[in-house]
Amino acid sequence: MNTIRTKEQLGPNVTRYVVDAPLVAAHRRPGQFVIIRVSDRGERIPLTIADADPEMGTITLIVQAVGKTTRQMAMLNPGDSLHDVVGPLGKPTRIQRYGTVLCVGGGIGTAPLYPIARGMREARNRIITVLGARTRELLILEDEMRSVSDELFITTDDGSRGTKGVVTDAVRTLVQSGHRIDQAVVIGPPLMMKFTSMLTKELGIPTMASLNPIMVDGTGMCGCCRVVVGGDVKFACIDGPEFDAHQVDWDTLIRRLGTYRTAEQAAAERFDHVCRIGLDGGTSA
Fold it and tell me: How would residue 283 be classed by pLDDT, with cut points 50, 70 and 90?
């Protein structure tokens, strides 16, 4: 049973869960993910493993309630269980001693970035972190990222926390001020990753990006998570999820991510409607 041990609200519609998954916890490495189902008839969704405790047999999942399944998961509480948790999946991050590693996280992307930054720090790299979000309420894991960083910079679109601007502003300022960066890791919304990788390419900084395309089985059989990297088709679930950011066809990725947007919105609206009926004393499905 994948029982939820703890549940903590990190921000608007963002929740941290500690879940029983002893086999995953024992084998997971930074950069890997799991696929979960909330119920026996539920869809399969990929979630990055934000942390793990092999001794306790638990993994940490940080989830933003956007679609139907993540909204359903947000209604679960400690003591409830996820129907199944499969993993760890994907290739682990290549952790080695690079020198100075720049970790750039946008919004919920900070969740998968944290174990990577910690792993890079344990490999004796110097860690410079840039976190960005639209507003201060959407920043997550600031304390955790600070604990594994030598320097940490924050940007918000509205200036409510840190410097007003976007992460690329901070990255350019860092380089212009004389910081030498040997490797970058960027995780966040696709547009943010696209423009950050364009900048790091201009600056000559090797960059890894963790991609989260549409995914179903997580084993490379369905082909839903295909991405174009260096002109070749790759499957994010088995070839990734991390790729050379300078080789990713970002426009194709962004276009494919919108394939089922209308259906996803309709499913979320139906779920909210059923929930409201239930709360009002009607019959829920």
Answer: very low
